[in-house]
Amino acid sequence: MKNKPLKERLHKNGIKLVSLARSFGVDKATISRWVQGSIPAERVIEFERLTNISRHELRPDVFGKKGEAA
């Protein structure tokens, strides 16, 4: 994500890493690694649903940039 760091966006939207961890059934350290690196492609759709952050922003390498032709 190029605009704001993901962790900052989650915090601004009131989303806690521990809450995401519970939703995914993983520990907080796993979510921290995703937020600092990249979210596994197979988890992006669920991450998008839980955070309302577009899959195109989360993983443009997999889903392309928003509005980009497939």
Task: Explain what this protein looks like in three dimensions.
- This protein is 57% helix and 0% strand.
- With 70 residues, the protein is mainly alpha-helical.
- It has a single domain, classed as 434 Repressor (Amino-terminal Domain) (Orthogonal Bundle).
- The relative contact order is 0.15.
- The mean pLDDT is 91.
How do the helices and strands line up, and which of them pair or pack?
Blueprint: H1 6-12, H2 17-24, H3 28-36, H4 44-51, H5 55-58, H6 60-63
Helix pairs in contact: 2-3
Overall tally of structural domains = 1
For the CA atoms, what is the radius of gyration?
A: 12 Å
Briefly note the structural class of the backbone.
mainly alpha
CATH topology: 434 Repressor (Amino-terminal Domain)
Helicity level = 55-70%
Order of helices and strands: HHHHHH
Helix segment count? Answer: 6
Distance between the termini: 20 Å
- Gross morphology: globular
- CATH arch. level architecture: Orthogonal Bundle
Q: β content, as a range?
A: under 5%
CATH class categorisation: Mainly Alpha
Low-confidence stretches: none
CATH superfamily: lambda repressor-like DNA-binding domains
Mean of the pLDDT scores? 91
